[in-house]
Structures are given as C-alpha cells and as structure tokens.
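Hey, quick one: can you model this chain's 3D structure?
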Amino acid sequence: MRRQVLMRKGSAVAVAAVALTSLGVGPAEATGRGPTPQVAWKTCPAYSDEVLLAIGVPDDRLPAVRAQLDRMECGTVSVPLDHREPGGRRIDVAITRLKALDQAHRLGSLAVNPGGPGGSGYLMGVQIGTLTNDEAARLGDRYDLIGFDPRGVGYSTHVDCAPPHREGEPPTGPITKEAAKADYDLEVAFNKSCGDSDPEFLRQLTTENVARDLDLVRAALHERKLSFLGVSWGTWLGAVYRSEFPASAGRVFLDSVAPPHFRIDEFEDGRAMAAERDSTRLVAWLARFDDTYGLGATPERVRATILAMVRDFDANPRHYTDLPRAVDGEIIAVSAAQPSRAWPLVGQVLKALRESTGPTAPPVFKDVVEGPPQTPPPPGAPEPVNRTMNQAAFCNEDPSRLDFEHAWADFRQRLAANPVTGRSLRFSAGCAGWPLPVQEYRLRRGTGSLVLVGHRHESVSVFEWTAEMKAAVGGRTYTVEDDVHGSVLRVPECSADLVEYFTTGRIDGGCQGVPLPDGPDAPGPTGLTAAGLDLTTG
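Sure thing. Here's the predicted structure for all 538 residues.
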C-alpha cells in the first residue's frame, strides 16, 4: 500500500453504529409536540465491489460485508427542520438497522455516531460487525445496530457550499501577516457566502437539533430508551442528547470526549498544547532507536534536532526536482505531531530529510507526499463526510468569531508556545464572517448511566476535556493509556470492556489501548495526518 498524507480538515471517520429496536412494551411517544413519527422503510442502496473497496473495505472482507449488507434495513424518518415549529418545513433523516443476532436475549437499541460534525454513520452497523474486531462485533449480538446520517449529511436532507478557491500554491516558510490577512478575508467571504446560500436550512444544523432528530428516530422505532455510543464529535452529540432527553437516554458511552463548552479558539489552543506535549513521548521513542534514525541518543538531543530542522527548512526550503512545491519546516512539525502508530514512519521521514542532498526527494518522503493517485469516488459511493454540515454546525455554536487582529495574535501565541509542533498549525479565520446567529448550548448534569473515555496522550480530543465534561454532566471516567483518537472500537481489550458495559452496565477504570511500536520495523499507518478543526481525524 502506498503511503499518503491526509490534509487538514480531512476526516478519518471512526467506525460507529446506531441501534434501534422494539421492546414490545407498547409504542414510545415522541418527545415534544407534533405527530408520532414513523419510519418509511425502503430498499437499501446497492453497492458494487468497486464502491466497497473505495470506502475502505479490504478485499478479503468483502464477503463478510456483503452478508451484513444483505441483513441491513434502510429507511427515513421525517423530522421538522425547526423543532420549535413542528408544523413547518420537514426534512428526512436516513437510518439503517441491523437487528440483533440473539433476539431471544435482545437488550435494546444502541445509537452510535462517528464524529465530525458531518460524518456519515449510515453504514456503521456494518462496519462494527465486520471491520473492527471480534469483541466489538459482539455489540450486534444483543443490540439492534442502526446507522444514521445526521441532518445535513449523505442520504439525509443536505446542502453543499462550494469550498473557497485559492489561487496558486501557498508560499513556503512561515506565513506572513499579509498572507494571513489574505487567507482571513477569503475565509470570511466564504463563510458569509455559504451561510447566506440557504440560511433557513443552515441555521438549523446544530448539535441540539441532531439530538432532537435522534429522539424522533427513537420514537419512530417504538423505543422507550435509546443507548448511545459516540466517538469524537459524537461525544458532544451524546452529551447533548442525554441533557435534552434524560428519560430517553439509556447507557451512554463516549469515546475521545469533546470539551463541554465549545469555542474554536480555545479548542485549537487545547489541541496545540496536547500535540506539543505528546511530542515529548515521540522524541523519547526516537532516542531509543538512535542506531536506526540517527536523530539523537537522548530525548533532549532528538528535540534539538527537530527544532533545528524546523528552523533550517523554513530558512532554506528544499526544492526537489520531482516534487511540485518546496518543502519547508511545516512537514517537520507535522511529523513531530503524529500519534505513536506513525512513529516508525516519522523516524524514516526525518532521517531521510535530514540526510537528503537532492536534487530529487528521498524516496520514503516522496512516497508519503504523493500517496496513491487521487480518483473521484465511484458512482453510488456514500458521502463519508459533509463539509457544509461540518462548517455550519461548528459556526452556529461558536461564540468566538474573532476579528483578524485577535485571530492573528492567538495564532502567533500558539506558535510561540509550541515550538516543536507549532508549525503544523494552519492560520484560519475559523467562523469569522458566519452570518447566522450564535446558538450556544449549555449541558445539564444528569444521573443516568454514562461512561466518559479519555485517552491520556492524544491530541485530537485532549485528555483534560474528559474531567471537564464529567464536572459538567456527571458519569464515570474510563482511561485509555494511548494517544490514538477513538481507539476503543479497534483494540480487543478495550472493546471487550465496551461490550461488557452495554451488556451489564458495569465497567472497570480503563485499558491500555494501542501499544507503542516495538521498534523501527513495527507496522503502522500509511500516512501522516495534520490536525484540523474536525472532532475527528478522525
């Protein structure tokens, strides 16, 4: 497999599922006003092998995925665009269902969201059953697994704003204030244009409205309780759902917890701090294998080497004849901000760049930069993430909306505070210029069953956010000793605890998660990921 670089705001959507079922105790009522919702069941989309391979199904798993798809049921639930006006315009929320394998011992419905905002969960039941591990797949034994596309995404009602267009390649080296102002103006213009394109619809893309949609899905499937598994932004959705509908929320498990109060500027500050902090583990690991990488025999020396490379590549960008643009200090900082699975690849890239004399790029680095050929998704492929939903949901709830001078000052402070990884950060206007009103949501403390999962070393969802969320909403914490965003569904030991929780309501205090690589030859991911605004990477 070729190595690839995933650009900022790229979304690696975590596997998840939504489970919905009937308890046989009489119809569940919809919360709020309006008619009792119904599911309009319909024929599921047909996916070719080409589509399944394109969305990440390995060739050897195609038969298992096909078997799950044959079991899957598909439908839509009609919901109000504005829940304050249930008699007004209506939109569709698309759902799927995989009924529990053990109907005799069925426990109920489990709703799961992958993150985003804007990530598709339509096929997550299938993914959990076939693409995670045997422990995680047991979620489908006693729960109906139901996937759904939140409003604004995929098979649900959505709109799309064209992304902003930048002329030419970005300049090499640290961004200047003048270039940042040009980017700021471009993003402000895009935010205003997008927000004005369909304000009636876009203003209703909020986490609270997705939670209200989800409760109507619960009612449409005749459920009195709905359990929930959320990853990344899905943890924010789960917390809001539990706050809004405490009587409807069953067991709730939130992996890689979001902050309880959302502001993009504070969000970026936290992520930048956590990436710099985790780089101390990277330099210690690279020092252990100095014989292989030659970056330094102590953590201090490795850190000094990386800092010197950032400065050198910014001052003297490398112009390789076989790459379209020069390589500056950003790629060094991006490398230093990687989670542990990528550290063997990080070591190779840093060693190759440090020793390179040109004129062509080091093969391992070129392989990472170029990646596989980019091809459009094949016809019939589901939408993995909707960028307009992502932007609208963030911006409708973000109260910061900084002017340029404040945004520039914040960015410069992040660079200064995070010398090893700071150059991986991109200056952004965030939600400046978004023309629709701020709709902040305040969580409420509850007493229902809740598990909050924090990953001690990760930088996508900062570990401290878990304690902050617990202080706001209650529940108990579960600590994963890794730096991998949303890894509970991928690690059998952790997945077993997850299934035990949803089966019995009991769980211990944590798991080890993804282990550190054993050495330079340990397998890892196929690319380097730069952190973005998404509450996903993933």
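One thing worth noting: Residues 173 and 315 are 7 Å apart (CA to CA).
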